[in-house]
Structures are given as structure tokens and as C-alpha cells.
Amino acid sequence: MTNTLIKEVIAFAALIAAAWFVSALGRKKQVLTAGAGARAETGWPGSVVFALKAALILGIFMVPVYFQSDPPYSFYTNKDASVKVAFKHIGKKVVNCDEAEVIKSEGERYRKALKKTSRVQMNMARLAGCPRERFPVHVSLSIDGREVLDRSYAPTGLKKDMASYVYDEFIIAPGRHKLNARLGDSGRKDAPDYTFEETVDIKPAQVRLIMFDDTLGKLVLE
Q1: Rounded Cα–Cα distance for residues 135 and 112 (Å)
Q2: d(CA 18, CA 195)
Q3: With contact defined as beta carbons under 8 Å apart, do 104 and 110 qualify?
Q4: How far, in Å, CA of 144 to CA of 156, rounded?
């Protein structure tokens, strides 16, 4: 049994014990009240006294729960390290159609036709003729010359026109490693649009992240 599991068991047992004690106090008070009959009570009302006792007992038992509820935990031992590939990226359109240009040209046509007749209509079919679907984002990764990732991430959205979400993780030994990542967003698996290559030192229990920086327009390592 790991230390974390032991701590969780202790915290759970403390909560059960606190609940049992509060319940026992309640039953005891009911018995005493029934036996006393109509005897007059002095001091604070019994309900207030019971509430204070319950709060005190719960507080005592919640001390270990509080200190054990959020123990530090690491998924990696000192013998492991990790390389993550995590980011979102939107692929290029499957059909190269400039929506802005289509709208502009149709607006110009409508403006000229409107000078000749008032019954002119805009060609809505033409405006809707630009498919919105995007290419999947394909990512491949090699560590020390060994390919560990070669996967396509589908675009999201009902029309497949939104970003792809990339996430994969690889546990490796600490030390010096050569990372080579490729990203394709235009449907050409054999011709990546972005590449990244770097040799880095990764410390024990360290996580290095490969992501796409939209500001720089390239793959980066953090």
C-alpha cells in the first residue's frame, strides 16, 4: 500500500468516526430529554449546546483530514522523466477558398446590379459555396532516432472546421535526448509544414513540453 493510499484511508476513517460520534451524541441527548420529562433547563438552549459539541468534535477530527486531503504527489519517480506533446492547432482548409474574396466580389456584383434594377438578389449559394472543413493535424515525434508518435488528430466542430487538440505523453529515462518533432496541417503527411529538432538534458521527474506557439508560428520546447 502506497503512502498516498494510506493517507486517504486515514482521512476517510476520520470522517466516518466523526460522523459516528455526532450521531451518538444526538441519540444520547434524545434519551436524556425523554427521561427528564418536563424538567426546566438552565443556561443556553439544548440545541445550541449540542451544536457546539458537534462542531468541536468535527473540528478535532477534521484536523488530520485537512492536512492529508491534498498531499503532494508526483506521477514520476526519480528514475523517470517525461516528454509531452500538448497544444491545439487549426489545420488549413481542405478546399482553398477565400471567403472574404467571395463576399467582396459578390457584394460588388450586387452593388452594380442594384443600379440597374431593384429586384436584384445576392447569390447566397455562392456565399455558402466555400467548404469549411479543415485538414487533420498530423504530428510525429522521434526520441533518439526512435519514432514514438505518428498520429493524426481530427478537427473538432460539426463541420470539422475548428481546431485539433493534440495530446500525448512519453515516459523516458532522465538524461540527454535528441527530440525531433514534425507537424503537418495541410494534408501532406510526407511533407510536414513545421519541424523541430533539439538535443536537451532532461532531469529526473522533469516534464518537457513540445507545443505550437501561435505567436512565433512554430513548434517550441518548454
Answers
A1: 37
A2: 58
A3: no
A4: 32
**Which CA distances in Å does 58 have to 11, 12, 122, 149?**
13, 13, 72, 51
Query: How is residue 81 written as a grid cell?
Result: 522523466
Q: What is the signed CA dihedral for 218, 199, 190, 188, rounded to 10 degrees?
A: -20
The answer for residues whose C-beta is within 8 angstroms of residue 197's C-beta and 6 or more apart is 178, 179, 180, 181
pLDDT digits (tens, 9 = 90+) for 25-81: 566 555 555 555 444 444 445 555 666 666 666 666 666 655 555 554 455 567 889
Grid cell in block for residue 66: 485537512
Contact (Cβ atoms closer than 8 angstroms) between residue 188 and residue 91: no
Query: Where does residue 183 rank: exposed (0-12), middle (13-18), buried (19+ CB within 10 A)?
Result: buried
* The three cell numbers locating residue 117: 434594377
Q: 79: how many CB neighbours lie within 10 A of its CB? A: 10
Tens digit of pLDDT for each residue in 104-159? 666 676 666 666 666 666 555 555 567 788 999 999 999 999 999 999 999 999 88
